[in-house]
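Tutorial, part two.
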Amino acid sequence: MYTYEYPHPAVTADVVVLRSGENGLQVLLVQRRDEPYADRWALPGGFIAIDEGLEEGARRELLEETGVVPPRLGQLHCFGEPDRDPRERVITVAFLAVLENGDIATRSGSDAADVAWFDCARLPELAFDHRDIITMALDRASPSG
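Running the prediction step on this input gives:
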C-alpha cells in the first residue's frame, strides 16, 4: 500500500439518536471512559476502521457503545474544525437517527462507562463539539428543518 509523507486527518463517526420523552426530545449520550474528556458525556461514536464505510462504522460504534440498532440512519453533516479533538486532526461525519416513542433498551460497552437519555433542553457538559452537532440535529429533526 502506498503511504504519503505528509500527515492526514483521522476520520470518526458520531451518532445523534433522538426520541420523544416526557419533556420533549431526548438524546442518547455515553459517558466517556477514556481521555480526552474522561467522565464527560458525548455522542456515541468513534474512529472508522480502515476497511469499513462511514455508515457501517457509525452503526458499529453505536452498537458497541450503547446496544442500540436504529432502523434508519441518515448522514447529518461533516464537522472538521482543526481543533475539535485535542489528540490529533479529526474529521467526524455525524449521523442522525430518530426513534419511535417507547422504551429503547440500552447498555454501555466498549469505551463507554455509562449510557443515558438526556432531555435536549438540559444537556450536561459535553465532550468535543458535540453540543454543536446536537444543535444541528435538532434543527434538522424539527418539523420546519
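The two ends are 43 Å apart (CA to CA). In part three we will examine how such features are distributed along the chain.
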